Task: structure prediction
Amino acid sequence: MKRGREEADEELKRFEQFCRQFAYSPEKSVKVKNPPPVEEEKTQSELEDAPFVAPYPNRYREKYSSPCPNCFKNSLVCPHNQEKRLRLLIIGHNPSEHAWKNGNMYSNPTNRMWKILTGTFCEGSEYKGVIDPSMTIDDQNQLPSRYGIGFTDLGTVPGNQSDKFTKQELAQWKIDLYDRLTRHLGRVCKQEHNDPKCSLLCHSPRIVLFSGKKQFVDLFAKPPKVAMGFQQVLPDDWPLSPQIKVYVCPSSSGRVVMKKEDIMKYYCEVFEAYNSLFFVCYNELNYK
Result:
């Protein structure tokens, strides 16, 4: 009987030894160098407060700050680069099908915005842009952090024909735009001083450029006659500071029939105001 028990104990020891080789050991665990970051699950309130990002696999997004490559590629709200007060916010009408998929505003090959910004649209030293002429449209994500230039649209619905949308849709777009702009100001406020009593208006972009007359006129209850250039009359319910400079420029669409020089002179007026801000507010803005 004793012998049988000893044999059983010995067999149990061998079994335990066999199992031990499969047990977890910190010394034997595989260490992964630079593991990929784990995306934190965002709360509903955080998602509602975030800038607009089109659903994957589309890459269109509002650009109040520069999205990191990973977030841009995967159509994620980017928490890695915080929003600052912009020097220039460009407001378009709505994204083209190309921009909706590509993720870069004005990326349709026939659109001339990028050439306007780089100063390569029109010959002549008087038609300078505001960004490095060697930059390509794929460098657009750098503009918020490098130049303080952001992008958004009246509507966040893709389409190549702006006149196909109804008055009811445009009215809803206006409400949505105002809400998105106000939330942008709130996010900037949280970064700068997080004052619950702040009116948020002090965080407005210093200059707003409407890249087309239609999206500006659509903000008024009664559409006024609007001339190109600096705007002295703003909508009654304008959500940004009334002290900022607002300009309306010709659409950069390739469908616009205007001389290049005539188009560029309005943008140059904006760029002159932009460049003057750089010297006056460089230390405050801290854009390099």
User: Anything to note?
Assistant: The first strand starts at residue 88 and ends at 92. The chain has one domain: 44-285. The first helix runs from residue 2 to 20.
